[in-house]
TrEMBL record:
Organism of provenance: Alloyangia pacifica
Lipid biosynthesis listed as a keyword: no
Compartmental location: Cell membrane
InterPro entries reported for this sequence: TM_pro_TauE-like, TSUP
Regions crossing the membrane: 31-51, 72-92, 98-121, 133-150, 180-197, 203-223, 235-252
Keyword Mitochondrion: no
Protein name: Probable membrane transporter protein
Highest taxon, organism lineage: Bacteria
Cellular component aspect of the GO annotation: plasma membrane
Family statement drawn from the similarity comment of this UniProt entry: Belongs to the 4-toluene sulfonate uptake permease (TSUP) (TC 2.A.102) family.
Length: 253
């Protein structure tokens, strides 16, 4: 009963936060590990639980996703699929002990990206600076971020936004739309790979996923009324830092 309650609350909170400001993985991943799910399986299950939220967000941004600046939809989808598969395969061949040692660093990087990402993105867009206009360079950058997302989902959204900013995009609505589409595609192919490899804890997924879906619905309504996102972002950064410290202590203490 305690396990079910923890996973349901973590899922609800993650779904709501993802709808408002992002960062829900900082709740579901440590909750899954805390209730006894092995780290690699917890990572795979947390990614699966976030999938319905990505689908809903992609539908909400469907008009912004249509043709505009940035990479073509075909190139984006193919690159995200390839990166998601490569990242998932990389996770499959990572020994559990090695992954446990890498987790704190991944959490730290994701937390710092989440904390500093919006300010850096605003500065990047204001400066007008971007990488040279080359399709190969653009797709390589997206591929690298997609591989990261297939390996570890935390902080994926802000990394994708930063990548779009680096290639010269400035329309935040389209950037958010492409971000959710890329997240949906790479997460979908990742969870298929995880499922075939037996890395999904289906019982935990059921509880966490239902919580995420419910929280996402509530969070979407809250997001429309919120003008200042500093409080939820501060909460997520705090949770991320505390979680990072705990995992560092467990891995290297």
């Amino acid at each position: 009963m305690l396990t079910t309650t923890i996973l349901a609350l973590a899922g609800f909170g993650a779904g709501a936060l993802n709808a408002i400001a992002g960062g829900g993985t900082f709740l579901t991943f440590p909750a899954l590990v805390w209730v006894g799910v092995p780290p690699i399986m917890a990572n795979a299950t947390a990614t699966f639980a976030a999938l319905p939220g990505y689908a809903g967000s992609s539908w909400a941004y469907r008009r912004d996703i249509q043709a505009g600046e940035g990479p073509s939809l075909t190139a984006l989808v193919v690159t995200a699929m390839l990166g998601g598969i490569l990242g998932a395969l990389l996770l499959l061949v990572t020994p559990e002990d090695l992954f446990s040692g890498v987790i704190p660093w991944l959490l730290l990087m994701a937390t710092l990206a989440f904390a500093a990402g919006p300010a850096l993105l605003r500065g990047l867009l204001a400066s007008g600076r971007h990488l040279p206009d080359a399709v190969s360079l653009t797709l390589t950058l997206l591929l690298l971020v997609s591989i990261y997302g297939g390996y570890f989902n935390g902080g994926l959204g802000i990394l994708l936004l930063a990548a779009f900013g680096l290639i010269g995009m400035s329309d935040l609505h389209r950037m958010n739309g492409l971000k959710t589409l890329a997240s949906l595609v790479l997460s979908a192919v990742s969870v298929v790979t995880y499922s075939l490899a037996g890395l999904i804890d289906w019982n935990a997924l059921l509880v966490t996923g239902l919580g995420c879906a419910t929280g996402g619905y509530v969070g979407a309504h809250m997001a429309r009324k919120m003008q200042d996102l500093s409080l939820p972002r501060t909460f997520i950064v705090t949770v991320g830092l505390v979680t990072t410290i705990v995992f560092f202590a467990q891995a290297y203490g």
